[in-house]
Write a structure and sequence with these properties.
CATH superfamily of one domain: YefM-like domain
CATH class of one domain: Alpha Beta
Strand order of the largest sheet: 1-2-3
Shape: elongated
Helix content: 25-40%
Structural class: alpha+beta
Number of strands: 3
């Protein structure tokens, strides 16, 4: 793995990207402290690998595919209320 400071990376970006294309990793440093790593895309086996890891550890849920809401959800009308919502909003906004 090659380590480079930001200034050197900016000045020679094409060269370092060619090295990454060739299969090498590049460690990015800011004032000699590691902050990031550029790795070849070929090392990533699956685009959804990160999501699968999060699902496995319980930090995320897999996306819902298809329409799983019951048809009654879409045909339901909001309940009728006797509360004057507009009046409540005006009352709240009016200066006292």
């Amino acid at each position: 793995m090659r380590a480079v400071n930001i200034a050197d990376l900016k000045n020679n970006l094409s060269r370092y990207l060619n090295e990454v294309r060739a299969g090498q990793e590049v460690l990015i440093k800011d004032r000699n402290r590691p902050i990031a790593r550029i790795v070849p895309l070929a090392e990533i086996d699956d685009e959804d690998a990160e999501l699968k890891e999060l699902v496995a550890e319980g930090s995320a849920r897999p996306p819902i595919t298809g329409n799983r809401l019951p048809s009654s959800f879409w045909s339901r009308r909001p309940p009728k209320t006797t509360i004057d919502l507009v009046g409540l909003i005006r009352e709240d906004r009016d200066p006292r």
